[in-house]
Write a structure and sequence with these properties.
The chain is 57% helix and 8% strand. It has helices spanning 2-10, 13-27, 73-84, 91-98, 104-119, 122-142, and strands at residues 39-42, 47-50, 56-58. Strand 1 (39-42) and strand 2 (47-50) form a beta hairpin. It binds zinc ion. Zinc ion (ZN) binds at residues 31, 33-34, 36, 50, 52-53, 55. InterPro entries: Transposase_Zn_ribbon (IPR024442).
Length: 143
């Protein structure tokens, strides 16, 4: 089934990081220190660096993942399940799909994802993800 295939794509942390970066670039990143909007991407650190003052912004900073040590893929897994299940998702099911050991951090993330879905169009970020995934597949086929 298509939905089962998709969830495995969303579980790919490497793709998730890239999709989240695309999403942030599309929304625009403003340096917290000087307000500059131009940034370099430090791939090895997964951080943006301000072109003007060199201040670094983590991928998660200023988003619902700020302060969270959970993989970025959990955000996409949660979004996907929420949309698929028509906005209802229990922490137990979320845990089953992420395979995470503890429920406590998942509770917190799930609550934030639900708020995100209420206030944003969740499809646009998922489309970013699929585009990134398709590019990867395209590149790996071309090589
Ligand atoms: Zn700056």
């Amino acid at each position: 089934m298509v939905t089962n295939d998709l969830i495995n794509v969303y579980k790919n942390e490497e793709l998730a990081l890239e999709a989240f970066r695309e999403y942030r670039l599309r929304k625009g990143i403003a340096c917290k220190k000087c307000g500059c909007k131009d940034h370099y991407w430090l791939a090895s650190k997964h951080q943006f660096q301000c072109k003007k003052c060199k201040f670094r912004t983590t991928l998660q900073s200023g988003t619902l993942l700020e302060g969270s040590k959970l993989p970025v893929s959990y955000f996409f897994i949660g979004l996907h399940l929420l949309i698929r299940n028509e906005q209802s998702l229990t922490v137990e099911e979320f845990q089953k799909h992420t395979g995470h050991k503890y429920t406590e951090p998942l509770y917190d993330l799930l609550r934030k994802i639900k708020t995100y879905v209420r206030n944003n169009d969740p499809n646009s970020i998922l489309i970013d993800f699929i585009e990134v995934a398709n590019q990867k597949i395209f590149i790996s086929k071309a090589v």
